[in-house]
Design brief:
The structure holds two protein chains of two kinds.
Chain A (H helix, E strand, L loop, with lengths): L2 H26 L4 H19 L1 H18 L12 H49 L4 H16 L3 E5 L12 H13 L3 E2 L10 E7 L4 E8 L8 H69 L9 H29 L7 E4 H15 L5 E4 L6 E4 L1 H19 L5 E7 L3 E7 L35 H11 L3 E6 L5 E8 L13
Parallel strand pairs in A: 6-8
Antiparallel strand pairs in A: 1-4, 2-3, 3-4, 5-7, 8-9, 9-11, 10-11
Chain B lengths: L5 E5 L3 H13 L3 E5 L2 H11 L3 E5 L7 H11 L4 E6 L3 H9 L4 E5 L3 H13 L9 E4 L2 E4 L4 E4 L2 E3 L3 H12 L4 E3 H8 L8 H15 L9 E4 L3 E4 L2
Helix pairs in contact in B: 2-3, 6-8, 7-8
Classes of the chains: A alpha+beta, B alpha/beta.
Amino acid sequence: MTLIHLRRSLLSTLLVVSFTVLAHGFQALGISDASIVLTLLMAVVLCGWFFGTLYSIFAAILSILSHSYFFSYPIYSFQVNDPQHYVAFAFMLVIGVIISALAQRIKTQKKSLQFRKQGLEILNQLGRKLSNQIDREGVEQIAEELLSEVLQCKVQVVTKEENGDWSSEDDPELLRLRVVAEQTRNKVGWTTAIEPDAALLVCPLVGSNDVVGVLVVSRAQDLSSAIHEKLLLLETLSSTVSLSLERVLLIEESRNTAVLMETEKARNTLLHGVSHDLRTPLTVISANVAGMLLERANRADDPDRTSLESIKSETDALIGQINNLLELTRLSAGSLTLRREWVPVEDIISSCTEVFYARHPGSTMTVHYPADIKLCYVDEELMQHALMNLLGNAAQYGGTEAPIEIEALSHTNYSEFIVRDRGPGIPDAEKKLIFGKFERGSSSKKIPGHRGSGLGLSIIEAIVNLHKGNVGVRDRQGGGAEFWIRLPVPESRPQFLEQSQ
Amino acid sequence: MNLKPFILLVEDDPAIRRILRSLLKSADYDTEEATNLETGLSMESILHPDIVILDLGLPDGDGIDFIRELRKKSEVPVIVLSARDKETEKVRALESGANDYVTKPFGPAELKARIKVALRQIRPPQHQGKVECGPLQVDLDARRAFLSGNEVHLTALEYKLLFVMVQHPGKILTVKYLLKEVWGYEADEQKHYVRILAASLRKKIEPAPGAYKFVHTEIGMGYRFLE
C-alpha cells in the first residue's frame, strides 16, 4: 500500500467523519433525514471527485456505516429497520461511482486538451523555425531540439546522404530497426507491434515519394503516461519535419543541378568560341595552299608538291574535326531550331548516294526504299548529314570490298533508315559506348591511316535525339554492322490528292 | 570561232581569288575580278560575262541585293559562294535569282562541275519543239514525254513540273518557286505537294532508282534538272 493510497484513505475517512459531524449538527437543528443522507453523499462525491472510484466506494461504505450507526434507528447500532434506507444506501453507492467516473473523465480530457494545445503550439513553433532553414543540418538540429523538449526524451534525426545512401550506422539495433522502418514505412520499436522490446522507437520520415530520414526516440521513463497522445503528436510533428527535410534536400539538389547546367553551358560556349577561332586561320592556310597547288598543277615534277599536298590534307582534316566539334556544340546547346518538313524518304536517300558517289568515285552502293512514295517528318539537311556520317563510317570500316547497303523503311508509326556494311562489326560491349563523345570502337584501331575524332556517332545521336528518335547498331547477318535510325512519325501525315485534267 | 567562256569573280578574299583564278585558268576560262559589289555590278554591265561567281560574305553589302539588282537587267547565271553556316542565306540567294551555290571551303572539282552545268544553261527558254536529254524526250508541242522511245503517261501536274524543270536545266529551283510555277501557291504549308509530285515524276521518268539522272534533289534547297 503506497503512500498515496494511505493518504487518500485517510483523507476520505476524514471527509466522511467531517460530514458526519456536520450531519449531526443538522439533525440537532431539526433537519430531515433526507438532507442527512445528502450531506453524507457530499462526502462520497468529494472523495470520488478528488480521489477516484475506489475511494468513492470506500467513502460510500463508510457513510453507509456512519448513517446506520449514528442516524437510523436504532441509533448507535448497525442495525437498520427502515427498508427505505437500503434504497438510499444503494443509490449513494451508485451516485458515488458515477460522479467519480465523470470526474475522472473530465480530468483525463482536460489533460488531453492541454497536451493537444501544447502540441499545437509546438507544431506552430516547429513550422516557423523550420521554414527558415535552408540546409539539412539546420532542420535536423531544430527538429531534435524541439521534439526532445516536447516528448521529454532524447530524439535524434537521421537523414540520408546526398547520394541516397544512409551513413554507416554503428548501433546494430538502430540499423535493424531503420531498415524495417524504411521498408514498411511504419514506426517500429517500443510502443509498436513490431519489435516491442527494442530500446528505440524509429519513425520514418516520408516525403512525397521517398523516405528522407528517420526519427529515433530513445525510451524514457515517463513517456508511458499519456502515451497515446504523445505518439499522435509525434506523427504530426514528424510529417512537418519530413516536408521540411524534403524541401531542403530539393534545394540542395536544384543548387547542384543549376551549377552543373551553368558549367555545361559555359563549357559549350568556350568550346564553340575556341573552335571558331581555331577554324578561321586554318581555313586561310588551306585556301592558300590550295591556290599554290592549283598554280603548280601543270608542273609535273615539282619537289614541293608532296609537301603542299600533305599540308593541305592535314589542315583539311583538322578543319573537318573542328567542324564536327562546332556542330556538336550547336546541337548540344539546343540553340538549333529544327526545320522539319514532310520529305519523301527517297529524296534523302538519293541525295546521300549522290554525295557519296561524288566523294568516293568508283564505289558502289545498294539502295532499297519503299515502292510507294513514303514521307518522313524531318529536318532534311540534318538527316542527310547524319546518314552521310553513317555512310562515311561504313566506307571507312567496311572497306570497299563489298558494297554498302542503305535502306529506308516506312512503318505505321515510325520511319527507319539502315546502313549496312561488311566490316569487322562492333563487339557487344561497345555497341552503346561508341555513341559517346570521342569514343572510337576497338576495330577502328585496326584500320591503318584512320582519322576521325570519334565525334561522328555522337553528332548522329544528337541529331536523332532532336527528332525524338533512336539510333543504334546491331550485328549484320553474315558479318558486319548494321546501323539503324528510327524516327517517330507524327499522326498528321499529309494527304495529297492529285488533280488531273 | 569558239570563244573561251568568260567568268566574273566578285570576291574580296585574296586567297580565294587566287584559288578561283588558278582553277578557272586551268579549266581554260577567262576571268576578271571585282573586289566589291558596286564594282561587280558595273563590271557586269560593261563586260557581260558568261557567268558571275559571287561571294555572299562581301563586307560592303548584301549579296542578295546584288543579285536582285543584277536580275533587273541580266539573266547571267550566278553561282554564289557562301560560308558553311549560313544556310538560310543560300535559300534566299537562290530565291532572288541565283542559279547554284557552293559552300566554302569548296573542292575545285565541285566548282568546275557547277560552272560547266551553269554554262550549259545558256540557251533561250524553249516552249516549242522537242527537248532531248539522253533517253528522255519531251515533246513540248504535243505535251508528251518519252523514255527510250516508250511513252510515259504523266498527269497534267507532273507534266507541268517537268516543263518548268526543262526550261531551267542545271539551275537549282527552290521548292517555293516550283510551288508557285506549278500550282500558283505561295504558302509554305503546301511545300510537301512539290516533294510528292517530284517523287512521283521520278518514278515515271527515271530509268533506275538510286542515283537519279534527271531530277536531282538539292537537300535544303530544291530540285535541279540535269540533262
